[in-house]
């Protein structure tokens, strides 16, 4: 897929129209993959049927520092960040020029991080933090 828009167009109908390489023009299922799944990058598994981002808006996904999950937000045509459905509703209410755009056109559902692709040093840091926290809780009598 060459663009984010092309990907979103496929993802928004994925359950009704599963993506098959055989249905794509000039593509064969025998063609090698553009990239291979390995630990050189962190992978995520996206959810199907997320609505296509409305024209003029950008959907952004931000990976948390501890790689535990992603956070979704939308950037409006004016550059304002919307971090929740409530913020989307308020923005649409305050901007009547956005008629034709509905709050249901936005989804804050995020992909799941594939744990085996999280960098080892991040997992080690998490494990150390858990041990430290358990040790502190045990010393203070908290459990």
Per DSSP, what share of the residues sits in E-state strands of 2 or more residues? 5-15%
Terminal residue distance: 49 Å
Main sheet: which strands, in order across? 2-3-4
Largest sheet, strands/sense/barrel? 3 strands, antiparallel
Q: Helix and strand string, N-terminal first?
A: HEEEEHEH
Domain MBD: 43-113
GO molecular function, one term: DNA binding
Keywords: DNA-binding, Nucleus, Transcription, Transcription regulation
Pfam families: MBD
Q: Which features does this protein show?
A:
three-stranded antiparallel sheet; single chain; 143 residues; two-stranded antiparallel ribbon; 3 helices; alpha+beta; 27% helix; 5 strands; flat
What's the short story on this structure?
By secondary structure, this protein is α+β, with helices and mostly antiparallel strands.
What do you see in this structure?
The chain has 143 residues and is an alpha+beta fold. The chain has a domain of 28 residues. Helices cover 27% and strands 13% of the residues. The chain is built from three helices and five strands; from the N terminus they run H-E-E-E-E-H-E-H. It has a three-stranded antiparallel β-sheet with strand order 2-3-4. Strand 3 and strand 4 form a beta hairpin.
Topology:
Layout: H1 4-11, E1 44-45, E2 58-63, E3 70-75, E4 81-82, H2 85-94, E5 112-113, H3 120-140
Antiparallel strand pairs: 1-5, 2-3, 3-4
């Amino acid at each position: 897929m060459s663009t984010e828009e092309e990907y979103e167009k496929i993802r928004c109908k994925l359950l009704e129209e599963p993506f098959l390489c055989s249905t794509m023009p000039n593509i064969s299922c025998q063609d090698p993959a553009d990239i291979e799944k390995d630990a050189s990058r962190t992978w995520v598994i996206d959810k199907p049927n997320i609505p296509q981002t409305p024209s003029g808006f950008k959907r952004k996904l931000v990976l948390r520092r501890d790689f535990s999950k992603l956070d979704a937000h939308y950037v409006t045509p004016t550059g304002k960040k919307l971090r929740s459905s409530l913020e989307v509703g308020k923005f649409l209410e305050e901007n009547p020029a956005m008629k034709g755009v509905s709050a249901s056109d936005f989804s804050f559902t995020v992909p799941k991080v594939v744990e085996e692709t999280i960098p080892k040093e991040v997992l080690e840091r998490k494990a150390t933090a858990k041990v430290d926290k358990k040790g502190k809780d045990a010393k203070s009598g908290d459990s």
